[in-house]
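User: I'm curious what two different proteins look like when written out as structure tokens. Can you demonstrate?

Assistant: Sure. I'll show them one after the other, since each token string lines up with its own sequence. Here's the first protein:
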Amino acid sequence: MCIADISQYIDTSVSVTMSWRRNNTVLTNGSDFTISPPVMTNNQYTGVLRINSLRDELDNGASYNCSVSVTPNTPFIIAGNDNSSAVTLTVARFDINHVDISINIPSVPVSGDVFNLSCVIVGPPNFVENLTSVRWTYYLQGSQDVASENNDATLVPVVRNGNIFTSVLTLDPVKTTDARQYYCQVAISVFSYIDRNNRDLTVQIPPPSVSVFPNPPTGPIYESTSYLLTCTATVNTTIVDTPVTASVVWSDPSGNVIPTNDTRRQVIPPTGSSLVSMLLFQPIDTGLNNDGGTYTCQMIINSGNSLIASSQPTNTTLPVTVESLPPMTVDFSSVGSFELGQSLTITCTIKTVERLVVTPLITFFKITKTDIEMLSNLNRPYSITTDDTGSVTNYTLILDPVRFEDAGMYTCMAEFNVTGFNNTNDPSTATYDYQEASGVFTLNVTCKLN
């Protein structure tokens, strides 16, 4: 800026001209310089020279001269007058320290969200170049931009605010595969210079969907039976790269965490890439253990990638009602004839509830007036079968033909004893579920006379 005081000519009509020189070279308007027309204010003549782009090789040490010439409009009234002033510039060479580049990641995004990464470029004051050539790449020498490699990435045009330039990369949605290193590269063309910065992006796995299913799925849950709860976590594989792993915490109705070394309530954690955990009761109980109530399964999804954060925990619950064990039954049935020489099949059927944790001890024997004989000593064909559920057992004796010595009282006895410890595994507080039952079948052999 050049200011000339012409107050001494206030009463005289004069013409004032102003010119600019750099090292005695007259300057004109153009791409390198902008010369604003002088303005008269309060007897001060003010002109502005704008150097559109300082260059150290031209401007460092250069002398800029402002010359002002005053010429009277009426000759010979006063003499003309010329004056000038000069300033010498010191211009530092542009280097990396004059531009600051930072990548702003305000938080750890959750996979599935819309997320913006901002590259903020701060130039020196009065920086003339408009930094529109900003690239986002995954690698320093990346040949392709992020937006070219990732269909979910969008690059927003650079926004300038003074000497601050902002480039925004939008990930919609962000995925766990986006957890990686990002480069923001800025080309400063006027200096044929590229500056850059890089930063890692951490992405968090979203909370999984968690469900608990009982086995058996329906019907009453009896004490002294095995009972299984299966907890399954599900992740959205479109935004979560698999395989992933899961960690689980099971809590009982009192809110206590069930330890993995509990012998009666076995926690089976997820293994490998399986997202399934099980809680197995061996057995479930209504006694001192009081297993009835609401159980909670908590799942967290993890990744082996240091840039992928584990999910927030997800809880789900399931109420469990335990009923007392119904009595075991023992019943006899027969097919055929009691007559001598005919065929007769005698069956003893023992029924318990399904999934009873112990197998009943069953004894089948024959009582006569003089002896007691076990089934295996009767020297007659027999079979022992159990149905698919394990709750129905049949002892079958085949008498073919029926003989006089087959007469007698056939007895079937069954018993079982279930021992379940409480949560402290203290045998002195053990609870027992004991049952016994029996049945009798009397065979009187008849003889039919023709």
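Here's a second, unrelated protein for contrast:
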Amino acid sequence: MNDIFEDAVDRIKKATGARTQVELAAILEIRQSSISDAKRRKSIPADWLLKLYRSHGLNPDWIMDAAQPQVLKEGPATPFTVAEAASPYGIEYPKPKTVSVSAMGAAKPGENWSERVIGRLPIPDTFARPSLLVVKMDGASMEPIIHKGAYVGLDRDQKNIVSGELYGLLAPMEGLAIKRVFIDAAKSQLVLRSEKSGHQDQYVAFQDQAEIVVGRVIWVLQEI
């Protein structure tokens, strides 16, 4: 079986001209140890994809799955510029999307959570979808998978639970929380679990699923 992580790294190296891990780390502007950590987890961090889109115009889907096209924008992509030069030969390349970022906490203590915009974030076009909700992680309960301050993309159309996946959930008196959710069929309940040790599991009855599930986590942007 092919190693998905290694295949993705090979594509990155070929596209950027990096021959060694040292050169790859320099291109990504990260420590070599961060590459080793990603290799151990067998996961390409989302911020690598954003960095490579911005610097080389690489399509995140091509990096991960070899899906064409390889390049979404020729030359260095500059999503933060106000004005862009005209595309060569009249070709229009997909531009990054700027999306709203919402707070995870309720507006006031004791209130129910509602979408409250606290900022804007440019993301690769392939990360965007009509059902996307982006929140900024305000706690450390999901470390080391999701760090405090990370940007988390939720798909609000994906509310059916797949056991073991990450979801955004409405937590009473807290606001919106990110948890790994497991199905306990024997007890007809969902188990809501944090990644960080010391946090107790929470339990929700199956029949309450529709009321608390906001959406499935589909990507995370964070520093390593």
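A detail about the second structure: The radius of gyration is 19 Å.
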